[in-house]
Design brief:
Blueprint (H helix, E strand, L loop, with lengths): L3 E8 L5 E9 L7 E9 L2 H11 L6 H26 L6 E20 L2 E9 L2 H8 L3 E3 L3 H5 L8 H9 L6 E6 L2 E7 L9 E7 L2 H11 L8 H4 L5 H8 L14 H4 L1 H14 L3 H27 L6 E5 L6 H10 L4 E4 L10 H14 L7 H4 L9 E3 L5 H10 L1
Parallel strand pairs: 1-4, 4-6, 7-10, 10-11
Antiparallel strand pairs: 1-2, 2-3, 4-5, 6-12, 7-8, 8-9
Helix pairs in contact: 2-3, 6-11, 8-11, 11-12
Length: about 400
């Protein structure tokens, strides 16, 4: 197979916008190369609707359907913007992997009419993306793993294993998005020894409190947290949440640490007299401490010893106060970002979904049961083929 391009797209739990990566996949095997990357903010109305849906606001079937299709158009625009920026001809892009926007993720089993069910819901109609771009589109990446008994996450662990495992060095990959997650890679590990899990809230609580108190979307550089003092009483209460004691692998999201959690947190802070800046410092410490506890727990479970290197990506990397807290909580661990491996801190997950889509076209499973808890490796995604003719693709490309 010859060299080929693939596009990966997603919007994370923070609902900041769409990350888009164009990658070159070598035909002879080897590491993929990031060719171009961009992030496009959501239209304000779309972002507000997604946040409302994710926070549990009741949506009618019509509202759900229209938002799903509107997001299809938004993701299609993002893919077209990448084609325009990169100037790579459409016919050289073999596939688009669109993770879409998660609005529900329910990894815990529940009995419904006698069936043991778990599920996940990502919005962004793939047929719209395939039609507007003329490129075959892969979507709904998590369902296959969940049908096989897995948590449907973290899917990034498969990518981490294949691109970051080292023969002589223990490594832990840390992604700090709305939710934080880790992939543990013991030196020279095979797939069965990889461990991955969500650790708990990443930027989610910090962002919510910044919006509530200061009318800003996030704590730029961690300056608000740096101006406050973490309340140790409240921090210990927060760290006693049952989620942090659950066994790996586990996943979470807004269902557990969303608006209802924030409402209870604000009430408890008022009872304790914790001021806004101190509360933001406290939840920043919660993110750092829950990450550190998860890393230390994996050391015991995996017999891997302390990681030699912690490789970090995600929006949380830009929060200097949070990163300082993580380093302090994990002394002796070399902490670096994915920039050293050629991936901007916002790009790695988008790159992953481009590669997962390429694997699905080849009918190759691309999950790690050891990381997700599935009974066997699963195919990741469903395929929506483009029916656009080559002439139409060329016409649209020249119209960019």
């Amino acid at each position: 197979m010859s060299d080929r391009y693939a596009i990966g797209m997603l919007s994370g739990t923070s609902v900041d916008g769409i990350d888009v990566a164009l990658v070159l996949i070598p035909g002879g095997g080897g590491k993929v190369r990031l060719h171009e990357f961009l992030t496009l903010p959501y239209p304000k109305e779309i972002r507000e609707q997604v946040l409302a849906y994710s926070h549990g606001t009741a949506f009618t079937a019509e509202q759900h359907t229209r938002l799903h299709w509107a997001l299809g158009h938004v993701f299609a625009q993002a893919a077209v913007a990448m084609l325009h920026k990169s100037q790579v001809p459409r016919e050289q892009v073999m596939v688009i992997g669109s993770h879409g926007q998660t609005v529900q993720h329910l990894p815990e089993e529940q009995n419904v009419a006698g069936f043991s069910t778990r599920g996940t819901l990502q919005l962004g109609e793939a047929a719209v993306i395939a039609e507007k771009t003329g490129v075959t589109t892969v979507y709904d990446f998590r369902a296959g793993d969940m049908a096989a008994g897995g948590q449907g996450a973290p899917l990034i662990s498969w990518f981490d294993y294949h691109y970051f495992t080292h023969p002589d060095e223990n490594r832990t990959l840390l992604n700090i998005g709305g939710i934080a997650n880790i992939t543990v890679l013991p030196a020279g590990a095979d797939e069965s020894r990889v461990l991955a899990s969500d650790t708990g809230p990443g930027n989610m609580l910090i962002d919510a409190l910044c919006r509530h108190y200061f009318d800003c979307d996030y704590d730029r550089n961690g300056t608000i947290a740096a101006s406050g003092q973490a309340d140790e009483r409240l921090l210990e209460e927060l760290l006693s949440h049952p989620y942090f004691e659950r066994e790996f692998p586990k996943t979470t999201g807004r269902e557990l640490f969303g608006q209802s959690y924030v409402t209870r947190l604000l009430q408890r802070a008022q009872e304790l007299g914790v001021q806004p800046r101190d509360l933001i410092a406290t939840v920043t410490a919660l993110t750092a401490q829950s990450i550190a506890r998860a890393v230390r727990k994996t050391e015991q479970r995996m017999d891997a010893g302390r990681p030699h290197r912690l490789i970090v990506n995600g929006g949380g990397v830009k929060n200097q106060t949070l990163m300082q807290m993580v380093r302090q909580a994990l002394p002796g661990v070399l902490c670096q970002t994915t920039e050293a491996w050629g991936f901007p801190v916002d790009a790695k997950e988008a790159v992953c979904f481009a590669v997962l889509a390429d694997h699905l076209l080849a009918q190759k499973p691309a999950t790690l049961p050891a990381a997700t808890g599935a009974h066997h490796p699963a195919l990741t995604g469903k395929i929506c083929y483009s029916t656009m003719t080559r002439d139409e693709k060329n016409r649209r490309h020249h119209a960019l």
